[in-house]
Amino acid sequence: MTNILLKPIGIVRTNAPTVPRHWTVSDVEGTIIIDEVYREGLRDIRPGQKIIVLFHFHQSQPFSPENLTQKPPHRNEHLGVFSTCSPRRPNPIGLSVVDVLDIQGSTLRVKGIDMIDGTPILDIKPWIVPDA
């Protein structure tokens, strides 16, 4: 297989001493600072909307075959890694959905952070809810 090289587009900043394990249970606020070269790409993001943030688990321990099954802290059984949100993965990529509170230039103030301060951002995508 071919190696893939990803370049961060920004970084997370938060003063929270700890963050929840998952975005669905987070009220933590912080900022996502996007590199100025990508600023125009933020032009249609508005306060009040949700966005998907893809990021790198940059402080995760290296993945090994023993990590193919893991016991999440809230479960009583081992699950396959692809059925968990564990940061210890073959490719340490995380996904969170956050609420946009404000935008100033290339800085997004958001709520729902489950990323630690300094986390590299790989991409942002729209949160699209299908019509009922």
User: Roughly how many Å is the radius of gyration?
Assistant: 16 Å
Overall CATH class of one domain: Mainly Beta
Q: How are helices and strands ordered from N to C?
A: EEEEEEEE
Low-confidence stretches: none
Going by helix content, strand content and strand pairing, the class is mainly beta
Give the N-terminus to C-terminus distance in angstroms: 40 Å
Largest sheet, strands/sense/barrel: 6 strands, antiparallel, barrel
* Shape annotation: globular
Write the CATH homologous superfamily of one domain: YaeB-like
Q: Total number of β-strand segments?
A: 8
Strand order of the largest sheet: 1-2-7-6-3-8
Plain-language structure description:
The protein is mainly beta and 132 residues long. It has a domain at 10-61 and 91-126: YaeB-like (Elongation Factor Tu (Ef-tu), domain 3), CATH 2.40.30. It is 0% helix and 34% strand. It has strands spanning 10-13, 29-34, 50-56, 69-70, 79-80, 93-104, 107-111, 120-126. The chain has a six-stranded antiparallel barrel. The protein has a two-stranded antiparallel sheet with strand order 4-5. A hairpin with an 8-residue loop joins strand 4 and strand 5. It starts with 9 loop residues before the first strand and ends in a 6-residue tail after the last strand. The mean pLDDT is 92.
